[in-house]
Amino acid sequence: MARVNLDGNSIPMLAICMIGGGGFIGSHLCEKLMAETNHKAVVVDVSSEKINHLLDRSLPWAHRIEFHQMNIKSDSRLETLVQTTDLTINLAAIYTPADYNTRPLDTIFGNFIDAIPVIKYCTENNKRLIHFSTCEVYGKTIGSFLPEEYRQDPKYFMLKEDVTPCIFGPVEKQRWSYACAKQMTDRLIYAEHAENGLKFTIVRPYNWIGPRMDFIPGVDGPSDGVPRVLACFSNSLLRGEPLKLVDGGRSQRTFLYIKDAIDAVALMIDNPERANGYIFNVGNPDNEVSVKELAELMIKAYAKVSGAPASSLSTVDVSAEDFYGKGYDDSDRRIPDMTIITKQLAWKPKTLLEELLDVTLQYQHKTYSRAIERELSKPSN
């Protein structure tokens, strides 16, 4: 039976160039495309590790997925791949907060300069582009500048794609290099649309989490690497170490299960008439907790998964400068307004935070616990 979109029209088979498609988001999107559609995935990345389970030539979708190992900074093959596919999805980014003030040049180049050729190729070849931005482009919330009595009202922290201003810290706070680079990319895409007719959709993820997110330092990533909060906390749980709460874990965030997020992206792919020209917040405002509360929930979930007593797992407060280095700054809350994506794509998140943490920590424990045990059992020099 032919698949139809939200307007009842048949969905044609698309060849999709997925830049950065071998990572966390790309691997889940590839699984969705292979299992539930007839689209073809042309994956471009420096590594295929997270999609290797999909590349076995004996699998029924083998003819619909291919991997091209390349660094888009220097590989001329990229233009041909954009030219010969129907849709480009740009997932490539430097996205770990620990890098923003320690590697600001790489952050700016990786998130703005390297995106320029992708946008240019799509415009020149009349190809549709789905570009992954970030909720960090909004910067600080209006609420963070208001007197304390106003700070309990969510309307001052609600982020709207077509209304909310982008408020960043001073230049010396290099943590905002990522948000600035992403915002400039958004503005370039919109300018190409306005002046040259680029067909685009911009996605602003709000803390998508789930299996295969980031890496565990010393196991499948650098031992001195600092991944995002879910993997940082997972690493500490696996090692039986205290979970480090930056500035006490006061910042509040909303978290979205990766499977729910991928459902939203699939709707964007299959409904171009409803998605072109739009910027979409993709998050779950019902899953808002402080980072400290997230740590407590993860401790509870990991104790259930691993059998370790929750009393043996703890947290410790650290300063932002000690953890991230000089130049760190952040927003206090980020709550996505969901009006536009609900209206255009009839999408709503489904998975509660406790449920998605259970699934994710089951994966983390199953995937990494033995490797961590072997590492910890090695005699110290």
UniProtKB/TrEMBL annotation:
Classification via Gene3D superfamilies: NAD(P)-binding Rossmann-like Domain (3.40.50.720)
Every NAD-dependent epimerase/dehydratase domain range: 16-283
Signal peptide: none
Top-level taxon of the source organism: Eukaryota
Alphabetized PANTHER family for the sequence: BIFUNCTIONAL POLYMYXIN RESISTANCE PROTEIN ARNA, UDP-GLUCURONATE DECARBOXYLASE-RELATED
Protein's recorded name: NAD-dependent epimerase/dehydratase domain-containing protein
Lineage of producing organism: Eukaryota, Viridiplantae, Streptophyta, Embryophyta, Tracheophyta
Primary gene name: LOC100814699
